[in-house]
Amino acid sequence: MKQINHEGNKCPFRLIRFPKELSYIERNKTSLVLIDDIFSKQVMNSVINWWNELDRLHKDCFQNNEMESGTNRVRLIITAREHVIDRACHSMGKTTPILNERFKINNNILNGEEKENIFSQQCTFANKERNVETPDTDEKFLKEIKKAEGPIGFPLCAHLFVFNKEYQKSGSRFFSYPNKYLKDEIKKEIEMDTLPKTKSLFLVLFFYEWQTKMGNAEKLELKNVQKCKQILENVAKVPVNNLEQLDLNGLEYEAQRFIGSFLKEESIGSYRFVHDSVYEAVGAFLCESDVTDTARHFPLDIIQMQRL
Questions:
Q1: pTM metric for this prediction
Q2: Is the dihedral of CA 187, 267, 274, 86 positive or negative?
C-alpha cells in the first residue's frame, strides 16, 4: 500500500468488510481499496454475494476503464489465507476475473531478518504503548522462531506471544503450534472464572462475530446488556435457556483485561477478537465443551466451521 500511496499520489483509502460495500466504490475517482481476509469462514451464500460484487466491480471499475483510457483509478488489494481463494473458486465452479491466478502474490514468506525485526517491533510496542513487560529472549530463541512455520502469520504470532505470559511459557514452540495454545489458554481463562464473566464475554463476542460474517453490520456495545442478550437469542437456544448461568453485566470492563491477547477495541465500547484464529479457538472450545447441546441447538454453520 505504501508503494501505491506514495508521495504526491496519495488517494482515499477504503476498508471493505462486506460485499455490498463494494457497490459504493466510484469508478471515476482514484481510490485504494482493501478487502482483508476475504472468504474467512464464509457460508456459500456469502461467497456468492462476494462473487457477484467482484464481477460487477471488475466490469465497472476495471474492464470499462481499461477500454476507455487504458488505466484504472481503483487500486484493489485483497488478502486471504492460504488456499481459501482456490476453495471458493472450486465451489463456484469458475474464477471471477479479479481473483485470476496471475494477480496472486505469496506475501507470507519472511526471511529471518524480517521476522526478528517484526518480533522486536512488537516488543517495543507492547512495552512503550501498552506498558507490558516483554519477555527475555536469547539467540537460541530468535534462531528457532526464525525457522518456525505455523498456520498463523508470524506478525500475529509475535503480537500474541509478547502480550501473554502463558504463551511465553511455551517458548518458541508457540510459533509452530499457536492454535493449540490459543485454545488451551481460552479454556483455562473460562474455567478459572467462577462468575462466569469470561465465558459470557467470549460467548457474546463469538456469536456477534458469527452474525457479522453472515452480513449483520450493526455495531455491538458491550455495556448494552439487552443488546448482548439479543445477540444470543438471535443465534442459539442453549445460551438463552441458561442465561441465569451467564453474567452479561460489566462485560466491557472484563473485555479490557484481554485487549492485546485476545481482543481489540475497534471503537469506544466496541470490541472484537484480535484475529479469526481467536474466533475459531473460542468456537472449538464451545463445541468441544458440550457436544450434545451444541449439536442440538447451535446453527449448522457454526458446527461445520469446526470441521474445516
A1: 0.66
A2: positive
